[in-house]
Amino acid sequence: MSAESDMEYSDNDGDDYDYYGEQDDCDMETVDRSKSDPEFFLYSCLKVEEVEKLLNESIELLSNSLQITPSLAKVMLHAYGWNAQEIINKYRENANEVLVYSRVKPRLPVGQANSSRTNCAVCANTPLLHKYSALACGHYFCNDCWAMHFEVQIMQGVSNTIQCMAQDCEVRAPEDFVLSHVTKPTLRERYQQFMFKDHVKSHPQLRFCPGPNCQWIFQAWTREGARRVECRGCELLTCFSCGAPHHAPTDCATIRRWLTKCADDSETANYISAHTKDCPKCQICIEKNGGCNHMQCGACRHDFCWVCSGDWKTHGSEYYECSRYKEDPNLANDSQHAQAREALKKYLHYYERWENHARSLKLEEQTLASLKSRINQKVMAGEGTWIDWQYLWDAARLLKRCRYTLQYTYPYAYYMEVGPRKELFEYQQAQLEAEIENLSWKVERAETTDRGDLENQMDIAEKRRTTLLKDFLEFNTNNASSSTKV
Amino acid sequence: MANIAAQRIRREIKEVMKNEETAGASIKLELIDNRWTELKGEIGGPPDTPYQGGTFILEIKVPETYPFNPPKIRFLTKIWHPNVSSVTGAICLDILKDQWAAALTLRTVLLSIQALLAAAEPNDPQDAVVAKQYREDPHMFEMTAIHWTNVYAGGPTPVFEFNQKVRVLTEIGVNEQVARVALSTYHWDIERATEEIFSIYP
C-alpha cells in the first residue's frame, strides 16, 4: 500500500493544469478556469515527436499546394515565420518575390560567365565535369568543396542559413542539397538536430522549455504580456512571451530592466545590504549573524526591526507595514548626493525583499522534499492514509506558488509611480505577504487535526494572490506603458 | 583540409604576383613560413586619402579550414582609422567575419581593406576614439591620419606642428608612442594629453 501511495504522489506532480490545489475548483463549483485564474493562459506542452509532426504538417501543406520539394518548403517556412497560408497567398501573387525573399533564388540572375564548370574557384582544382554542383544561383563548385563547406558550417552550429560559397551570394542551401553532399552519419545527425532547434526557434507559436536538459516544447498562440507556462517535465515556470522565468504581475520589459539592474548594481550593494546595517539610534554598524528580525543594538540597547529599521514597539499590530516603501517627502530639498543615496536606498529596499523571497522559495523546495518523507513516514506508521495527508502536500505547493508571485511583485512595485494605485498595490502586496507567512507557519507545523484551519488559510492566501493579479496583471497587459516610468 | 588551404594559398600568391605585373596595383603577398599558415600582406595607401604614399604591412594567419573559414588579418603598421584599432591593428570588416565566402581570395580581401582606407565606416567602428574624431572633427582626423602615415608608414607629408608636440613630451621622458596616442586622442592639446599620461603612468 505504501508503494502505491508513492506512485500516486508522483503522478500528481506531472499534471500540468494542477497550478493550484484541486480543492479550490470544487469550492467554486467548476467555474471556467479563464475566469477564476487571472493568469490563465491557453497553451500545450509538447514532446519533440509531437512538434515534429506539427512542423511536418506545415511543410506538407506548403509542398503539396505549391508543388515544391519539402526541403524547399522548409527554407521558405523558416523565412516567413512558419505562416504557410501567407506564403501560399503571396506565392500566387508573385512567386518570384517569395523565392527571392526566402533566398531560394538569387536577387539577380547569374550570368553563365560566373559559373565555370571546369575549374573550382574554391579549391583551385579541376575535377571531372560531372563532379560539380550548384544551387539555384548557378554558382558551380566541386562536390568536395561543398562537402567541406557544409562540414565547417555544421560544426559551427549553422543549419538553416548555410549560404552559397560565392561572394555576395545569399542563396541558402536547402536540406536535400546539404544532405546529398554530407556523408558522415554523425554530421548528418548533428545537422538535423540543429535544423529542428532552428525551426522551433523561428516558429512564433513554439518555445523550448529553458530548463537544463529539458526536452519539452511549449505551444501557444500569443506572445505578449506575462504569460505563464509550466513544463510537464521539469515543472519550471516560464513566461511564453519572453522566455524568462515567469514574472507576473511584472511585464516582460520591466522584468528585463530589473534583472539587468540587479546584475549591474548588486555586487557591492548586495554585500552591504545583506550583511550590515546601521543602528537607527546610535548609527553603529551592525552585522546580522542569524536569528530573528527583532534586533537589539549591542551598544545602545535600542530595539528595532532588522527589515525596516523601525522601532520594534510599533511592530505589534501592523508588522507588515514594513513591506511598504515610504518615499521621503523632504527629498526635493536634499542635495544631489542625498538623492543618489535615497535612490540606492529605494533600490535596496526592493532588492532585499526580492532576494529574500527568492531564497525563501529555495527553502520552500526543501520543505516540499522533507514533507514528502514526513507524509510517507506518517502513512507507514498507520497515522492516516495518503488521502488524509494529500491536503498538506497541496498546501505546500500552493505556498510555493504564492511566494513566487510575491517575489515578482517587488520589481513591479519598484518601477511604479507614487500614487493611489501604488498604494493599493502595496496594500495588497502586504496582505498577501502576511497571509503567506501565516500559511508558511502552519504548513511547517501541520498535524492531521489542523486540516480545516489549514485549508481555510490556503483559500485566503490564494484569494489574496488572485486578487492582486486580477487587479494588476490585466491592467499590466492592456496598458503596460502607463503604469511604469523610465 | 589543410591540403586545400595550401593549394589555394599557392595559387593566390601567383594570382597576386601576376596582377601586380600587369596592373601595377599596390598590393603584395609574401609567405612567412613554408607551412602556408602565415603570410605578410602589404597595401599602399590609396591616392587622395590621408594614407596616400604610405605602405601598410598586414599580418595574415590562414586557418586550417581555409577557405571555408576567413583568414585572420590585422595591421602590423600603426594606422589612425575608425575601423582599425590604433592599439592592436585589429580590423572591423564584414567579409573578415560573417560575410566571408569561400570563393573570396586574399587578393580580394586586401583590395577590400585598401578600399576601406579610402571609405571608412564610422558607424561600425573598431576604434571608438578615432571614429568620434572622424565624425566630429574631420580636419583634425585627417591631419592626425597624415601624421601617423608619415611616422609609421613612410608617408611623404610630415606634420611639423604634431612632430614638435610629440617631441615636447618625449623630452620630458614620455615614451614616443604613448605621447602620440595621448596627443591624437586629445586633439593635440598638450595639457590634456600630459594630464592623461601622468594620471595613468604616475
Account of the 3D structure:
In chain A, about 55% of the residues lie in helices and about 5% in strands. Chain A is mostly helical and about 475 residues long. Among the domains of chain A are: about 180 residues, Four Helix Bundle (Hemerythrin (Met), subunit A); about 160 residues, Herpes Virus-1, CATH 3.30.40.10. Chain B has two domains: about 120 residues, Ubiquitin Conjugating Enzyme (Roll), CATH 3.10.110; about 70 residues, no CATH class. In chain B, helix 3 crosses helix 4, helix 5 packs across helix 6 and helix 6 packs across helix 7. The longest helix of chain B is centred in the first third of the chain and has 22 residues. At the A-B interface, helix 8 of A face helix 1 of B. Chain A: It comes from Galleria mellonella. Chain A: It is found in: Nucleus. Chain A: Its main location: nucleus. Chain A: It catalyses: [E2 ubiquitin-conjugating enzyme]-S-ubiquitinyl-L-cysteine + [acceptor protein]-L-lysine = [E2 ubiquitin-conjugating enzyme]-L-cysteine + [acceptor protein]-N(6)-ubiquitinyl-L-lysine.
Features:
heterodimer, A: 486 residues, mainly alpha, Four Helix Bundle (Hemerythrin (Met), subunit A), Herpes Virus-1, two-stranded antiparallel ribbon, 15 helices, 11 strands, disordered N terminus, disordered C terminus, B: 202 residues, alpha+beta, Ubiquitin Conjugating Enzyme, 2 domains, 46% helix
* Intertermini distance of chain B: 52 Å
Number of strands of chain B: 4
State the share of residues found in helices of chain B, binned by percent.
40-55%
Note the total helix count of chain B. Answer: 7
Mind telling me the C-alpha Rg of chain B?
A: 18 Å
Strand content of chain A: 5-15%
Determine the mean pLDDT of chain B.
87
Protein name (chain A): RBR-type E3 ubiquitin transferase
Main location (chain A): nucleus
GO molecular function, one term (chain A): ubiquitin protein ligase activity
EC number (chain A): 2.3.2.31
